[in-house]
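Hi F.,

I've been meaning to write this up properly since the lab meeting, where we talked about keeping a consistent format for the predictions we share between groups. The idea is simple: the sequence comes first, exactly as it goes in, then the structure tokens exactly as they come out, then a line or two of notes. No screenshots and no reformatting. I'm using this chain as the first example so we have something concrete to point to.
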Amino acid sequence: MSMSTGGGGGLTNEPNVTPMIDVLLVLLIIFMMILPMSRKAIDAQLPDPKPAVATANSVSNQIVLEVKPSPTGEGLFFVNSEAVPGLKLRDRLKEIYDGRPEKIMFVKGDPQVKYQDVIFAMDAARGGGVKVIGMTPKDNGAAAAAPAAKKRK
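Output, unedited:
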């Protein structure tokens, strides 16, 4: 029986993979820890799709913030049909919600309004002390019928 001692083959270069595996595992753990922290979301409560019918004599104390398009391309803001300039929106909402125990508001965004205008309104509401924001569609009947009519042509 013969045995090879490896003397005739010369030098062989083999990389040591243990440090590379250690670095890989450390990076994997770092990315697994960072991923949940990097997610950003806006807390919104959507209204019930089949709300209970209110009686005609009931008094509503809901606050509705409407964002409508303007000819200049910026959003127009209305708090319960009262026009409010964008720069005064946070102050007006803070004034409304200071004495209220419930900090609930509904946001209606027109389909032609830019997304950033609705987010600006929601951000102003948060700055004004509103804790929960419900989002409602602007107009289901007319807005849904218009795109369907365009597709038929």
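Notes:
Confidence is low (pLDDT under 50) at residues 140-153.
The beta strands are 64-69, 75-79, 82-84, 104-109, 132-137.

If this format works for you, I'll send the rest the same way.

G.
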